[in-house]
Design a protein that fits this description.
alpha+beta
């Protein structure tokens, strides 16, 4: 697994109302997509955009799991958009097992 963990400068400064300008969503065309493409390339970005959303869990924070052809993907959006994460996960680990371990924590 490889991931991006993005937190805006205001997060570290402890400012109230801090939120990220980066989002990792399938339909998003902005900075998050550019970041994915610059790190993993166009093939991974295209695979993520075409991936099937398999589960969403929201408890103030939002977690999403996607199943692509090349890899599986996970996104995390912290409450108030203060923390954004995007993970590329090997198909060697089943997504069902990763979701189950998450739900058991």
């Amino acid at each position: 697994m490889e991931n991006i963990d993005y937190r805006p400068a205001c997060y570290w400064e402890g400012k109230s109302g801090c939120s990220s300008s980066i989002e990792f969503g399938q339909g998003k065309q902005g900075k998050g997509a550019k970041l994915i493409q610059s790190i993993w390339g166009q093939a991974v970005l295209a695979d993520f955009r075409a991936a099937s959303l398999t589960k969403t869990h929201a408890d103030g924070d939002t977690y999403r799991w996607y199943q692509g052809q090349l890899y599986n993907y996970e996104t995390f959006q912290g409450k108030g958009n203060t923390t954004m994460q995007f993970s590329v996960v090997s198909k060697d680990v089943t997504q069902r097992d990763r979701i189950q371990r998450f739900m058991e924590r």
